[in-house]
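Hi R.,

As promised, here are both runs. First protein below:
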Amino acid sequence: MSFASTLAYPDACVAPVAGAVADVPYDDALPLAAERGELTRCMRLRHAGARVVDVAWQRLGDRHLPVLVVAGGISADRRVAGILPGEPSGWWQAQVGEGRALDPCRVQIVSIDWLGGDGNLDVPLDTADQADAIAAVLEHLGIDCIEAFIGCSYGAQVGLQFAARHPQRVRRVVAIAGAHRPHPYASALRALQRQVVALGQLQCADELGVSIARQLAMLTYRTPEEFAQRFDAPAVLEGARARCAAEDYLAVQGARYAQRWSPTAFLRLSESIDLHRVDPDAIATPLALVGVEGDRLAPPEDLYALAEAVRAPARVQVLRSVYGHDAFLKEHAAFDVILRDACAGIGGGAA
């Protein structure tokens, strides 16, 4: 099947919406070759039918270098690393840069904002939709095949979906803290988070609902061991109310998140994690699966089950980290080694 046929415009969309308007055009004078833009396309979403969607994308590295797609969790965006001087750091800045594991002098790094992440797409979303959005961006950029899809958390789920739906477009997948299906325990926790957000909406307290849901989520991203190390202090009375040592930390995390994320974006992307399903038998792309002991969202057991069921070579590596699911954001040295190994031979080999 040709690449174009997989992205054919659905009948419900009268005509394709043309063009991509770059908000950071390609410029050799930038600190590194980079561009950022937005693509408008009519896509057939798995659960919502034909929709016109905007896909915001970023590319780091010279256009002629081998290509990696890099994707993070639901709160990550296309800014894997910053482009402009003075711009805030990207979500994986520690791994991107000259001499680092993801070196834009050796490879191109393509990334997107998740569909629904701006809160303007209030329909059921699926990891398959995100995979197709990435395929549309690659088509727009004239990229036939990527050397690797490196996905973390939600991005790992999307990477596996990409391998199943667009096998001719990817040579390997590095899936970190994500599997072919959500774990039932994790889905139950996310269902409670969505109920909290919905309750906030009913009470006209959108930010509070999102904040509390994020605070609950933080307990799944991290581990009891980390909380024991950081917050092992007795509760204190503030007036007539007891307050535990972790509450200030959680409140700050929740408030920061609520300032950036709408209830709609939170709900739809949270749902898309639980709607995620990939048949392992549909994956014929070599896999490197990375898990963390004690990760309640993507237990290593699920990674082993996936590795045993796919039709391609697959290896599993499990780390020990007090940071649990968030280890890929915190264990910089360990993931530098993992990424260099996974990308060996791409762009002249690992440094």
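And here is the second one, sequence first, then its structure tokens:
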Amino acid sequence: MYVELKNINKLFGNFKASDNVNFEIEKGKLIGLLGPSGSGKTTILRMIAGLETPDSGDIFVDGIRINDTPPSKRGIGFVFQNYALFRYMSVFDNIAFGLQVQKQNKNYIKERVLELIKLIGLEGMEHRYPSQLSGGQRQRVAFARALAPSPHLLLLDEPFAAIDAKVRQELRSWLREMIEKVGVTSIFVTHDQEEAIEVADEIIITNRGKVEQKGTPIEIYKKPATPFVAQFIGQSTVYENNEDKIQLKGFEMIKSNEKAVIRPEFVQITKLGKLKHYMSAAEEGIVEKISFRGSYLEVNVKVKNIILTSNRSLEDEMIEVGEIVNVQIYRLYVFNENKTYLLENSAMADNNYIYI
């Protein structure tokens, strides 16, 4: 493995930012560190960069322990969320800065900087200053500056946080393409699920200083390993069958010490009386809210005092707020202290559950 963190612990006063963190990263992978605020993801990034020191544990890059290696000697590029460009330096000089610190010769610096300016698509802008660039362009310059010294590892701390939504979407695809072209192992921190799922080869989910799960975006979404991941990933409703003695049809086997996560793709809404199959599994619900999401409608429906979310095609027959509808729940994730498993609606499937 190219990057390894072994038994990493880090305290800030009484706050445990890293609690026995262990993971490995293959060379050339683009990894997303995903988690809520305060989950420890930025602390992990800063310890790898050498900007923080772990209280215990070991960090290895390419088989070499780097705990005691100064940040400037680690061969790591760092992209900050606020760009951290030098205001009074041109695009060219900002990108060249790391090479000048390395005391590279002028011809090499010019060749390398112009190569990177072409790579990031800012040809003709090398003499502009940061104030003359858009947010997206400034982030591209920050990316090129981090790449200029040819780092072995690239770290990005919420690289799209300071950019507006439309440009952020464009930069996600751009970043993925650039990383593939350059081939450098990269780790980026984000709290945006959509961003991590779209950009990363693998995702590491953190919570309260611990690593909850590591896997591809599909693995994490379809096979959450812990209760936290099951609730954190996707748009989920948490259901307890003992709450006010609420029981959903087909899920009576959920135990009193268990909770369940219901995702939008597990729920289908049908006009009342229009359901053709599995009537015994259908609930009645009241449409609470309808939100237009561009290519689909997001519908919130109240079933037995539980608010569920479902995504509805624009091609389907229109429904209205306040309308009574049929609601089918195909499956849900059930979790307790020991395991997470996928449970199928017993009124719609022969196989009741699949352990994951």
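A quick note on the second one: The domain at 235-355 is CATH 2.40.50.140 (OB fold (Dihydrolipoamide Acetyltransferase, E2P)). Let me know what you think.

Best,
J.
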